[in-house]
Amino acid sequence: MKKNSAPMAKILKATALVIGCSGIFITGISSAAIEAQVSQSSHDVDAARAMLDSWTGYGPLLNQAKQKLDGVLGADPQNYLALKEMARYEIMAGLLNSRRVQYGAHYYQVGNYVPGTLEQAEATVREAIQIKPDFAEGYVLLGHIQTQQTKLVEAEQSLRQAEKLGTNDPWLEINWGSLNDARGEYLTAIDRWQRVLKSGATNPKALGATYSLLVRCYTRLEDQEKVIALYKDQIKRYPNNAWPRGNLAEYLTSTLDRNDEAIEQATAALKIMNYRFAQKALAWALYRKWAGMVTQGKEAGAEEYFRAALTIDPKLDQVMAYGGSEPAGANLAKALSTKKGVSIDSRAEDGSTALLLATNLNRVKLVQALLDLNANPNLPDRNGWTPLLSAADEGNAEIVSMLLAKGADIRAKKGGWDAVAFAQRKGNSELAAMLKKRAEDAK
């Protein structure tokens, strides 16, 4: 995009003036053409914004938005509103999944992107700001990009500049909350996100992001009733949206083992839209319902739930690895291994076992339950992580001790690093010293 090209409206206006001065009186027609061009550009930018706001990861809306924006910027490369929406498109198109990063003693979540995505989006939004230096919404988006880049100091500067310029963009509070969350300022983050829900904002993407961020924060704080209340508020606000019901179903079964409620919510979600996430939530709620009844000695009536789940999700090795690693996974892992002969060491796609996944997430009680079911503490995933190496990297001394008591190999290495080195890398000198002594004793 050429930064020095004059906006199309200015070019057309200058042409109209030249023609008028030469005695050809078609200035009125030229003005109409100018107004039509400007109106069409504004309409296309609004349409692209609406597409981006309603895009949930599926369907052709993302590419349709890009086509609209390409058309606007082809006619007027300095349309700063279109540039901002193009930066949003670039972020959405380049998002792969999420990852955890550390700030001090805190971990926070950012996106994992196709290489170069955030750099391109930053360049695009900076171009918009260069064209219109008082573009507050541009600084709001820039702050989000910088938070995703883990440039928290720069992100704060951008958001403060947006505040100084003034805007009622709900993303300003959302992005401030994300920055607070990254710094471990959870109550401040919650307060900012709650303001968005109470503000009367109608932007569907902004509201959806706010709910998701609040759910994630309250999940981290283990405030289960607040999580449920947020999902139910979403369901009330968007009764024809399947996702809040599917998400609630997944939370009820995986975290709380409230499987009857989960089955009800997943079934309701699938009546609205038949999609894989809700199918999986239903299947695993049915599996956990079966496992719970088996644990209670009600095997006769339990089998129908198992058969129903099996028709939806028959990959029992994946159910063991993933379902057995979730907070409510102990009964499921035990029932699958003792009643259906599924190996407790079944692997996920990346080679992780339920034990490794539970260790990664610091689920102490579940790790002990899996070890009591004779889970192998030495099986690595495809990247070479063993449960002990992961526990040392997480700095979880309690899980380290559990694993060592069950025969975890203190000599295991990943990329030349042993458990001592991973503990030292995280600055956990006490854990590193304990591991070093155990390694010396093992020689």
Question: What can you tell me about this protein's structure?
Answer:
The protein has 443 residues and is mainly alpha-helical. It has three domains: 78 residues, no CATH class; 143 residues, Serine Threonine Protein Phosphatase 5, Tetratricopeptide repeat (Alpha Horseshoe), CATH 1.25.40.10; 129 residues, Ankyrin repeat-containing domain (Serine Threonine Protein Phosphatase 5, Tetratricopeptide repeat), CATH 1.25.40. Helices cover 69% and strands 4% of the residues. α11 runs antiparallel to α12 and α22 runs antiparallel to α23. The longest helix has 28 residues. The protein is globular and about 85 Å long. The N terminus is likely disordered. InterPro entries: Ankyrin_rpt, Ankyrin_rpt-contain_sf, TPR-like_helical_dom_sf, TPR_rpt.
What labels describe this entry?
single chain; 443 residues; mainly alpha; Serine Threonine Protein Phosphatase 5, Tetratricopeptide repeat; two-stranded antiparallel ribbon; 23 helices; 2 strands; 69% helix; 4% strand; globular; disordered N terminus; repeat; Ankyrin_rpt; Ankyrin repeats family protein; ANK repeat; TPR_rpt
